[in-house]
Amino acid sequence: QLQLVESGGGLVQPGGSLRLSCVASGFTLDYYTIAWFRQAPGKEREGVSCIRSRTGNTYYADSVKGRFTISRDNAKNTVHLQMNSLKPEDTAVYYCAAGSPTVCLLPSYQYWGQGTQVTVSS
């Protein structure tokens, strides 16, 4: 069974950090482009960051550049999203996705996780 499972979400104060993880089972993550998306209540799903399969090139939404870092750990079949300097507007459910999209930050992915809640609040 092909599955993505996110973890690492939680409640954090503004300016704090969280590290999200996305673990794959049933397939090898490094064959795919992996992305993180987020969706806040009443808003559309937004591409946050992605990492290409062959080149390892990374991409970020303007809203998170300089604060978030995506990385792969192929030995653990895991992709991480390190989130620093968090802001209240980063509050959302964060999803990881795997696939072969043409445009890395658009939600045209084959596989999706269930999501993990990130809340930034004092």
Any overview of this molecule?
The protein is mainly beta and 122 residues long. The chain is built from no helices and eleven strands. The strands form two sheets. Strands 2, 4, 5, 6, 9, 10 and 11 form a seven-stranded mixed sheet that branches. Strands 1-3-8-7 form a four-stranded antiparallel sheet, with no helix packed on it. The chain is globular and about 40 Å long. It starts with a strand and ends with a strand.
**What structural category characterises the helix and strand content?**
mainly beta
Major sheet: size, sense and barrel closure? 7 strands, mixed
Supply the number of helical segments.
0
Q: What is the H/E string?
A: EEEEEEEEEEE
Radius of gyration: 13 Å
Number of strands: 11
**Assembly level:** single chain
- What percent of residues adopt helix (DSSP H or I)? under 10%
What's the pLDDT, averaged over the residues? 96
What percentage of the residues does DSSP assign to strands (E)? over 45%
